[in-house]
Amino acid sequence: MALEEFRADAMRCTRCTYCRWIPFDLIKSDRFAKGCPSMEAGKFHAYSAGGRLVTALSLMDGRSTVTEKTKDSVFKCTLCGQCDVSCKMCRYDMEPLAAMRELRFDLVENGHTLPQLEPVLESLRTEFNMLGKPADERGDWAKTLKVKDLTKEKAEVVFHAGCRYSFDGDLGPVARLSVKILQEAGVDVGIFGEAEHCCGGRAYGMGYRGDLDNSARHNLRAWKAAGVKTVVTPCSDCFHTFKRLYTAEAGSDIEVIHMVQFVDRLVKEGKLKFTKEVPMTVTYHDPCHLGRQGEDYVPWSGTEKKIFGQAVAYDPPKPRYTGAFGVYEPPRDVLKAIPGLKLVEMERNREAAWCCGAGGGAREAYPEFSAATANERIEEAATTGADAIVSACPWCEQNFGDAVEAGAGALKVFDVMALVGMALGIEEEA
User: Fold this and answer.
1) Buried b vs exposed e over 315-337: b needs ≥16 C-beta within 10 Å?
2) CA nearest to 399, candidates 52, 21, 80
3) What are the structural domains of the chain?
4) Residue in 120, 65, 196 with CA at minimum distance from that of residue 364
5) What is the pLDDT of residues 322-377, one digit of tens each?
6) What is the per-residue pLDDT across 238-251, written as a single tens digit (0 to 9) for each?
7) Cα dist. 418→276, 277, 329, 334, 348 in Å?
8) Phi then psi for 333, rounded to 5 degrees?
C-alpha cells in the first residue's frame, strides 16, 4: 500500500480525540482512563492518532516537510493499537493503526529514519536477530534440553522461542520451561536452535516492511521443509507476526498458536494436570500483540461505496478489527486453573489494556518514554493488591522487570509459563 491510500482516513477523522482514551464504556476511574502512551509523553495533538493523520495529510498535500519534530511525533509511539480500538467503537470507516504504520513506511522509504534504530536493523540483516547478538548463539538457551533438531529431523510442532527468549539470559528459563511443558504433555515438538530466524515483526513496526518479507520467506520455507503443521511461540510479537502479518503478506496454511493457548488446550484435554499449589495473588497484563492485535486475519477484497453520497459501505462487508476477539481468556483460564493462585484484574484490561511501552521501536529509540510507560502500568498493577504482574510476552516482562529494578514498585514479574511450571512441579534453573 501507499500513504495516499489512507487519504480518506485522514479526511474522515473529526479530531474528536477519542483516540487518547480507552473506550468510554470501559472507564472505571479518571485515574486510569487514558489509553495513549504517546499522548501522555508528547502532551500535544500531533502525538495522537488523529494528529498523525493530520501530519500524513499535510505531507501528502505538500503543505509541510519532514523535520526532526515530525519524526519524533511519528516514531514516539508503541503502535499498541489502543487508539484503533477506541476509534472503532464509534467509526467503521477508518483504520488509524494501519495509517500510522503506513506513515512510518513512507518516512523510512524516503530516508527519514532514526539513527537509534540502525544498529537493530543491521543486527537483523546480518545476525537474524533484533538484539545485536551473534547468530550462532541463538540456540544456546536449549543446550541442556533433549529436544528434536528440526534442521536434521521432522516434528509436527515447532517451538519458536523468538529473539528475546533466545538471547536474554534472564528470560531463557521461560523458553526451556515451555519446551519441557510440551514434552510433559507428549507433544511431538522440535526447535531450529541457532537456525531459527527473527520473525521480522518488530522491524515492520519500526517502518521496515521489506525486512518482514525477508524473515517471512525464510521461516515459511524452513517450516515447510521440516514438515511442521503447528508453530507454537511464547512471544506475543512473534504470534502476531505469524498470525496476522505472514498471512496478510505471504500467506500460510500452518497453524499458529501462542504457548498460553496451547497450554490451555492441553489442560482442558486432560493432558496436563496441575498438582502443586502456587499461593500467590497475581494480575494479568494483556500484551498488545496477543490481546487487541491478536485477532485472526481475514483476507478481504472489495470496493468502498457511499449510500446517498454520504454513508460509507463496503461490498462485500469488510472485516472490522475492534480488538474484542483477541486472546484474552486462555491465559486467564490457565491462571485460574492453578491451585492456590488468585487472579485479580487491573482497571484497564483486555482490549483496553495499557501498553507495556516496549513496542514499535520505542524501547530501542526512546528508552525514557518506554520506561515511563512501563512505570504507569506497574503503578496500576499495584492498586490491585497483587503480589506479581504476569504476562505472556518477553518484551513486556523485560520492560516491567527493568521498571521494578529501577524502583517503580515491589511487584514480582512472571511469565505465565513460570507459574505453570511451578504448578506442574517442573523445575528450571534461573
Assistant:
1) eeebeebbbeebbbebbbbbbeb
2) 80
3) 1-113 (no CATH), 116-272 (3.40.50)
4) 120
5) 999 999 999 999 999 999 999 999 999 999 999 999 999 999 999 999 999 999 99
6) 999 999 999 765 55
7) 13, 13, 18, 12, 24
8) -65, -40
Cell digits of residue 332? 486467564
Distance from C-alpha of 298 to C-alpha of 291, rounded to nearest angstrom: 17
Cα separation, 173 vs 334, in Å, equals: 19
167 Cβ contact partners less than 8 Å away, ≥ 6 residues apart: 129, 131, 133, 137, 138, 141
pTM exceeds 0.85, yes or no: yes
Give CA torsion, residues 190, 196, 200, 206, to 10 deg. Answer: 120
Query: The C-alpha cell of 365 is what?
Result: 529509540
Is residue 301 within 8 Å of residue 248, measured between CB atoms? no
- d(Cα 380, Cα 375) in Å, to the nearest integer? 9
**DSSP per-residue string spanning 111-138:** T---GGGHHHHHHHHHHSSSS---GGGT
What residues contact residue 255 under an 8 Å CB cut-off, 6+ apart?
229, 230, 231
The amino acid present at 31, given as its one-letter code, is R
Helices (H), 338-393: 362-365, 367-382
Amino acid at 175: A
Pairing label, strands 388-391, 311-315: unpaired
The long-range contacts involving 28-31, CB below 8 angstroms and separated by at least 24 positions, are 28/347, 29/347
